[in-house]
Fold this sequence. Notes:
Elements: E1 4-9, H1 13-23, E2 29-35, H2 38-48, E3 52-55, H3 64-74, E4 79-84, H4 89-98, E5 102-105, H5 110-121, E6 126-127, H6 129-142, H7 154-164, H8 169-176, H9 180-194, H10 199-208
Parallel strand pairs: 1-2, 1-3, 3-4, 4-5, 5-6
Amino acid sequence: MNAIRILIVDDHPVVREGLSGFLKQDKDFEVVGEAKNGLEAIEQATKLKPDVILMDLQMPVLDGAEAMRRILSENQDIKFIVLTTYDTREDILKSIEAGAKAFLLKDAPRQQVCEAIRAVYRGESLLQPTVASKVVSLVAELSQRQQPPDTLSERELQVLKLMAKGMSNKNIALELFIGERTVKAHITNIFQKLGVSDRTEAVTQALQRGIIKL
């Protein structure tokens, strides 16, 4: 396959250099550019058309969430991974709403960063468990009204609860003693019943509607 084209956005040069350095060691990745704030990110995204953008949240000039919104308004094909030291629930939820598909803290292992890039490039979403817990608790607090839950099967509820814990399809399959293809089929059904298109939206909607509680 062609190398995944990556744009790194962070206001700290040492972070950009560190990410660029280890990503360039992997033949699956091509670091096509860097930006130090959200405004530069928009300019670079328009010019370079990366596949994946590693986006910091708190930056001068323009923050990461607003940069993501503006970039996605012009190019829906770009995938975003939030890589941040600011793990407040409010910041992370704001980035979900802006369109991020994966959420990692900057102390995440290199392998996890690489796995996240490959996952979002394939069209998947990824919630790092430590980040996911903050997201779902905030959603639960903000959700005052309960909408009638769509009817999910017992197995679909089990899969959904494990998704909310940030587990991958493979780990869900191992946990439930079923095949990975079966897990994917359940997730497809969950998406259809909840009217969502990815894992993050599924978990958020399920919490808002009172289908699951954590």
